[in-house]
Amino acid sequence: MRRRLGFGVWLAAGWIGLVLLAALLADFLPFARYDETLAGPPQSGPSAAHPFGTDGLGRDVLSRVVYGARVSLGVGLGAVLLGLGVGAPLGILAGYRRRATDAVIMAVNDVAQAFPALVFALAVVAFAGANLRNVLIVLGVLGVPSWVRLIRGATLSFAEREFVLAARVLGTRDRRILWREILPNVAVPAASYAFIGMAVVVVAEGSLAFLGLSVQAPTPTWGGLINEGRTLMETAPHVVLAPSVVMFLTVLSFNLVGDRLRALTDVREIGLEPVRAPAALPLPTPTHPVRDTLLQVEELRTHFVTPRGVVKAVDGVSFTLDRGRTLAIVGESGSGKSMLIRSVLGLLPGTSIRGGHVYLSGDDLTAYGPAEMRPVLGRRLGTVFQDPMTALNPVRTIGTQVMEPLRVHLRMSRRQARAEAVELLASVGIPDPVRMLRRYPHQLSGGMRQRVTIAMALSCRPDVLFADEPTTALDVTIQAQVLRLLHRLRAERDMAVVLVSHDLSVVAQWADEVIVMYAGKVVERGPAAEVFARPRMPYTESLLQAAPRLTDPVHHRLRVIPGRPPDLAHLPAGCAFHARCPYARERCELEPPPLSEDHHHPYACWYPRPGTTAEQDVRTTGADSRGR
Amino acid sequence: MIVLHRLARLLVVLVVVTFLSFVLLNLLPGDPVTQILGLSATEESRARLRQELGLDQPLLVRYLDWLGGLAGGDFGTSYITRMPVGAELAERLPVTLELLVAAQIVALGLAVPVGVAAARRAGRALDQALTALSFALLSTPVFVLGVLLILLFAVTWRVVPATGWTSLSVDLGWNLTSVVLPAVTLGCGQFAVYARLLRTDLIATLQEDYITLARARGLSPRRILWRHALRPSAITLITAVGLNLGALIGGTVIIETLFGLPGVGRLIVDSIFSRDYLTVQGGVVLISVGYVVVNFAVDLVYAAVDPRIRRA
Amino acid sequence: MAGSGTAHLRPDDEVLLRVEDLVVEFPAGRGRTVRAVSGVSFDLARGETLGIVGESGCGKSSAARALVQLPPPRSGSVRLDGLELTALRGEALRRTRRRLQMIFQDPISSLNPRRRVRDIVGEGPRVWQLPGDRVDEVLEAVGLDPATAAERRPHEFSGGQCQRISIARALILDPEVVICDEPVSALDVSVQAQILGLLEDLKDRYRLTLVFIAHDLAVVKNVSDRILVMYLGKVCELAPSADLISRPAHPYTRALIASIPGGGGLDLPPADTLISGEPPSPVDPPSGCRFRTRCPRAAPRCATEEPHIRQVGDDHWLACHFPVKE
């Protein structure tokens, strides 16, 4: 939540303060009054007596700029307060009440926005008289529609949040909800816009003054000064440059502060701080015999260098996988299971460091550069993600998206690719695939979209399919369909599947082998049926007993794992699970347990469970009934 | 169906805008009769002129009268110059339109490559430099920028004329030299807005799952950027262009004054100073129509670019 | 399924909350209407937990919000201890709010990021001007340490802890009924077990009556005395939890159970023979029985005649023309 504002903002705020202070104290500053002619020789350049020089009448330019700030900032402040004062209540009302109130306010706002603001300001000021009050009122009123729109948008985004609903359920009155729940949240975007609004108004006032329609001479204004200076451009450019530069810096400062304030609340900007190159600390990459298997992962590590320290998202994971097999990776959020497959695929964000090896049919993928990796990703490895709603490009047709890998990697002609795409879509159980080609993702249900992403992943007949929580976002009846489809396709295409899931019952039913991850490490590995029937690592055991099952009696007490997973940037010494483990002893706090040597069913624990718990029932029947 | 609905709304907005501006302009202090005859005119001659111009009629009658004329394409006759307002506007419009189009070409021509380049290298030196540049441009009022550009290109280096206008029909080359500086001045600020917008939006788009999946399918960064990421991001840009174009029609006032261009903006300013109500009113209508029509067009383009809008 | 009817409701004096023919609809744009809930009835005895289960779009969350009148249902009756809530407006309705509290799915979004935990939990008593400060007591009851937690803001807590804060906020008003709308579906398995255990403890300690809404049948079974199965805005089946899981009679309930890996220990046929296709849109629901488009047992009658809820066993209710008999 708290983020650094940055040096530039303080500089900008300092400048704003300086200009403000100068404008306030102008009468006491040691320079000639703005209207004192022949304070120095006319059109003389900057000197000690006149830091900004003098103008055509020998008046001190610095003095004129400082007095001009009074008008600019005064109008800016007044107009912003006016806009805020009128626009904010209307915006909040529209956003909170919605329905008719909203419709009326926004309709009026629409009309207001169609008004040519600047022209209007000109006309009003020209006819009603060019003085401070009129300029302020006109610019303030013209700013109201933007304020309404902004505040309404911010209010809407919070009024739909559940905490507002919760407050209403508590019986809180509307007025209190507005004050306590909504206003504090709308305040930050409003403050941000106040600064940006200052910039806008200062420029607008300058424009009016430039056209001679703001506060009249002899009172100086920035726009007026620039307009006057224009005529001397060839002989005394400083007369026009001085107010221009001051005005530019002031507007820039307001914009900067406003922008940073906005960035504080804008989620989209998060993570875009300048990236410091990670301290290139190469991770150990020990050598291993390369085995005769489809996929071999050796000591894979993925670390992130963050301001909090090195986050060890994946920490020395090894496994092998053969054709026709399904390997499941299970663990809770933050266990590193998703990061593991992204690491295998080489799809990591720029701030990460990777160590270890990934061999695909004996080829070391970690030695490949991005260009070499592309054909591998396209043709030999397929990927399906969790959320089918975000996995497809919303503005491209299904056809274009399914055909793309075929055209790029297999160099098919458009006609060939189209025929192949139809076949692919049919093979994942999409009715009427020819029509489907012309449709867009938003026209499809979640289940259908996930079928499409599976079709895309399989288009170039990959050797390994990586499925990251492929059914978590789907309804249970659809989930069963999709899992069955994946299982069928695995057999038909003789590929290997890596299935990442948090759902143990899914894993038990569909996987051959399972890896249990905790805090970036493998804590147990083995044949799925055996791991679930006879877990050795206490974490696996508690995970199994924490998940409710249909066969449990009603009001059955689930096993509770106390505490929460450790911070990956500050892992405890010893076993990462020891603080939550009921069987932990002193040794667990001191020495991290290695993965045991047992190749069939290794586990990382000093005091493993006997492996004879009564977990056979559902889990094993699930595993046995696999493939139905 | 939806188009008809939108058109109806558009018409309503226009009627309301014209009515309000008509009333507002007439309620403001200042009297065209005084403007024409001077302060020393007799009450009798004032009344005669008033009757002649139709100013003795109630406000609503005058408005309806004017609106009726407008429906037939008649903007009325100026009280001051006694010239048809419509003809005057028609004469000035091409200048403003050329300026606007040229400015948008400058702005978009720069913003798309710059925004894309910055987004691709988000956080790196190039991005930071481009961000700083666009911020600086964003904070430079057009009249300041215009003055600076004139100072450099017209006064110091004398590459282009500082002011003046040569019509496109007279000489293409001279026309281009007279439009280039105003267009750059107007386009720079727009460029900054567009580039920042495109950058932010592209960065967000590049973090979407479907982009990661495109990478997972082994597509090249170039292909991902131009075929997958740019189109969703372009939607925001199109909206911004529409809104800006609408707002800019009024914003050319300053540029036209600064560079001495005989456009609509200049006409309006002159008419304001001479209390030429009907001409100002005509200008307001023209700008509002422009704004509303441009936004209507944007909605249509929007639907073409984003299939999600088409059905909704 | 598509069932309507009120045959399964118990006499008024036996129940605390009675919902009859609840209809929730909202506009979907272009003059169309989402028929989220179409004539659903159920009741709760004091101290009972009713589980409502169904897939996305079945109307379970819309029903929950209609119970607290946010927004009020299109039609139907919600009676709390004999008091008709749908007839109340304004201040009178507000006065009943204390008795009916709610816990939401998203633990992060249901807490105001700018307020401290003490203010969030203490909001209820302040609104109701209740004497004494029970914030510490309630925080302790939900397993948070008041000394460290009360002065912090929501973003400093994990999802599970935020859910505890939400529960504390609801409990501090001593409500009679708490409606839990998917309270654990955003949480990890281990945290889910913590929260489910906590709800059971609190239910005893504060004598609560719970409506527990979830899409996960196993979770619902774990906490509920009775389970109501919903599909596309209608009631399918209602039965005591154990009975519903061991003897599901409605084709949809059976499909739901069969879709869960492991199948609940029942020897059900594979899920793909029990259900096909995808749920239709609630904007344009099928005629007759709303489940018929996906039901393997559907007959012409199902398209023309909507099944009514009828009794098929001891407190086992069902809305289907052709239920599975065992």
UniProtKB/TrEMBL annotation, chain A:
GO terms for cellular component: plasma membrane. Signal peptide: none annotated. Keywords: ATP-binding, Cell membrane, Membrane, Nucleotide-binding, Transmembrane, Transmembrane helix, Transport. Residues 69-258 form the ABC transmembrane type-1 domain. One of its GO terms (biological process) is transmembrane transport. InterPro entries: AAA+_ATPase (IPR003593), ABC_Ni/Peptide_Import (IPR050388), ABC_transporter-like_ATP-bd (IPR003439), ABC_transporter-like_CS (IPR017871), MetI-like (IPR000515), MetI-like_sf (IPR035906), Oligopep_ABC_C (IPR013563), P-loop_NTPase (IPR027417). Residues 295-544 form the ABC transporter domain. It is found in: Cell membrane; Membrane. GO terms for molecular function: ATP binding; ATP hydrolysis activity. It is a multi-pass membrane protein; Peripheral membrane protein. The chain crosses the membrane at residues 7-26, 71-96, 103-128, 134-151, 182-204, 239-258. It comes from the Bacteria. Pfam families: ABC_tran (PF00005), BPD_transp_1 (PF00528), oligo_HPY (PF08352). NCBIfam families: oligo_HPY. Belongs to the ABC transporter superfamily. This is Peptide ABC transporter permease.
UniProtKB/TrEMBL annotation, chain B:
SUPFAM superfamilies: MetI-like. Residues 93-302 form the ABC transmembrane type-1 domain. The keyword Transport applies. It is a multi-pass membrane protein. The chain crosses the membrane at residues 7-28, 99-118, 130-154, 174-195, 234-259, 279-305. InterPro entries: BPD_transp_1_N, MetI-like, MetI-like_sf. GO terms for cellular component: plasma membrane. This is Peptide ABC transporter. Coiled coil: none annotated. Keywords: Cell membrane, Membrane, Transmembrane, Transmembrane helix, Transport. It holds the Pfam family BPD_transp_1. GO terms for biological process: transmembrane transport. It is found in: Cell membrane. The keyword DNA damage does not apply. Belongs to the binding-protein-dependent transport system permease family.
UniProtKB/TrEMBL annotation, chain C:
Keywords: ATP-binding, Nucleotide-binding, Transport. It comes from the Bacteria. This is Peptide ABC transporter ATP-binding protein. Residues 17-257 form the ABC transporter domain. Pfam families: ABC_tran, oligo_HPY. Belongs to the ABC transporter superfamily. GO terms for biological process: peptide transport; transmembrane transport. One of its GO terms (molecular function) is ATP hydrolysis activity.
